[in-house]
Amino acid sequence: VTGRLADRNPAYVMPALRRHLLSLLTNMENSPDSKNREESARLLGSLITSAPGLVMPYVSPILK
To answer: DSSP assignment, residue 8?
Structure first.
């Protein structure tokens, strides 16, 4: 829902989505538990689908 709101009011939504994106990337890199990494990957996929404009600057860290 929040990703779809990014098109309507980006100034309000984008900072929260950016924090969530960075949190997901950190969890994927640093979590010793594979279950947490898998959940972060699923949530990251949903975030990419719902707010592709947010993710474009972060493509290279995502691909690592």
So the answer is: T
- Rounded CA gap, 27 and 8, in Å? 29
pLDDT over 70 percentage in the chain: 86
Q: Do 6 and 39 form a contact (C-beta atoms < 8 A)?
A: no
Between CA 13 and CA 23 the distance in angstroms is 16
Q: What Cα–Cα distance (Å) separates residue 3 from each residue in 12, 14, 30, 52?
A: 11, 8, 25, 9
Within 8 A by CB and 6+ apart from 20, the residues are: 47
Q: Does the model's pTM come out above 0.85?
A: no
